[in-house]
């Protein structure tokens, strides 16, 4: 099974982002995935798109979860994608 490619949209000084990253790292122990962190402040387009939503976890073009990240529902969704 090849690892999932996850894009994690975040920003500096974001407690929700820190919590979400920790959840992703915990899930990475059981679900093979590569996490690509993207700071939205590197692009005006990303600030406009995700500024009010971050953190955002995406697989491909699909945004899986954003804002308050829930570990169990995220696990289920990642397992579904990884089939």
Can you put this structure into words, describing what you see?
This protein is an alpha+beta fold and 83 residues long. It has a single domain, classed as Glutaredoxin, CATH 3.40.30.10. It has 3 helices and 4 strands. Strands 2-1-3-4 form a 4-stranded mixed β-sheet, covered by helices on one side. Strand 3 and strand 4 form a beta hairpin. The longest helix is centred in the N-terminal third of the chain and has 14 residues.
> For this structure, what is the CATH class?
Alpha Beta
**Quaternary:** single chain
Number of helices: 3
- Rg over CA atoms, rounded to whole Å, is 12 Å
What is the approximate shape?
globular
List unreliable stretches of 5+ residues.
none
**Strand order, sheet with most strands:** 2-1-3-4
CATH second-level architecture: 3-Layer(aba) Sandwich
> End-to-end distance, in Å?
8 Å
CATH fold group: Glutaredoxin
Largest sheet: 4 strands, mixed
List keywords for this structure.
single chain; 83 residues; alpha+beta; Glutaredoxin; four-stranded mixed sheet; 39% helix; 28% strand; Glutaredoxin family protein; Glutaredoxin-like
Would you kindly provide a brief summary of this structure?
Pfam families: Glrx-like. The protein is α+β, with helices and mostly antiparallel strands and about 80 residues long. It has helices spanning about 15-30, 45-50, 70-80; strands at about 5-10, 35-40, 55-60, 60-65.
Write the layout of secondary structure elements.
Layout: E1 4-10, H1 15-28, E2 33-39, H2 44-50, E3 56-59, E4 62-66, H3 71-81
Parallel strand pairs: 1-2
Antiparallel strand pairs: 1-3, 3-4
Pfam families: Glrx-like (PF05768)
Organism: Fictibacillus terranigra
InterPro entries: Glutaredoxin-like (IPR008554), Glutaredoxin-like_YDR286C (IPR052565), Thioredoxin-like_sf (IPR036249)
